[in-house]
Design goal:
The termini are far apart. Helix 2 crosses helix 15. The protein is α/β, with parallel strands linked by helices. It is globular. The protein has a seven-stranded parallel sheet with strand order 3-2-1-4-5-6-7, sandwiched between helices.
Amino acid sequence: MEYQIIVISLPLKNNTLKKRILFYFVHPAKFHLFRATINNLKLEGYQIEIIITGRDILEELVQAEGWEYTKIFPNGRKIKGVHIWISAGIYLLLTVWKLFLLTIGKKYMLFVSDDLITFVGRIRGIPSFFVTDDDLRGVPESVILAASAKFVFAPNVCDMGKYNSKKLGYDGYKSLAHLHPNRFTLDYSKVPDELKSEGGVYFFIRTVSATSTHDVGKRGIGDDLLRKIIGVLEPHGRVILNSEREVAPDMQKYVLDFDKMDVAHIFAYAKVFISDSTTMCAEAAVLGVPAIECDDWFRDFKQYDELSDRYKLLRGFSPDDFEGLSNYLQELLLMEDMASVFQKRRQYMLTEKDDVSAFLIWLIKNYPESTSKYFSDTKNILKQFKQ
């Protein structure tokens, strides 16, 4: 009598659950923060789902990376003609509802986000990481995200108030997730040829729209101030303007079109970087570019204090203090070996900072044991992610 052996392969449901992770992000800066982590997890066989909101630049970046994604609110999350707080309240409910519908019936190991998926995770019993580098006092409306998340992933310097007890803190900044030397190598070939002429000296100015709820009643670099800043810089080199908001006709000539994926390479070679974007000022600073932040909110975040006071890579000014800003610019322009001085300051900063992406990857791959190990031996855990 002959017997036939039949091998039946059953799906490993637990393994599928273990490897399914949802990333939801709403800002281009979070694309850069998550980029190395998502690509690493994909290579390791994790099932990664990505949801974004309708920011044009964010979608361009995600598409350029070749990721599959789901887009919600293609026209953004603001209602024209409606007060920003009313609009935010309406879209809070709509966002939670849409995210709930997109995730219902699925099992996940983890949610990773800078937005309201943490609230959905709390309802569904799915653990989530709320990823931020904003102090709670600077963005008080983020309390709902910190409260609903299982853990908060944020720099040690970032103060999350009563939620510090569940903070997975690290020595570093959000910008080091993609600009740490282990993740980023400068490439001068990505700088447009027109910036390499006339000695290659140029200044990079970035202005933002400042339309978030935490920006209400606050100012960045307005057109009049922008003209004054350009007037100081123009005799010393070319001025490049990159703006999130509409640019006045007389300043259109300063706007430079370039591949959004190359922006860090371009401002890294600038003589000075000036902006009302906290995120991009930090990015320039960690690359060792003299950075100036001009707005009403730079003092709201402890990250600024550290980059300014400890490492001297960043300086902040109120929009009312053009004289102070102008004097500092003149000081920089007269500094001997300015680029070398700031690169030494950068190297000192890097000796004290972590490879942020490596830390996040380790946390996710070894979750949930990783969080227990982190809280029981934080110093030694972080030591392995330093240079």
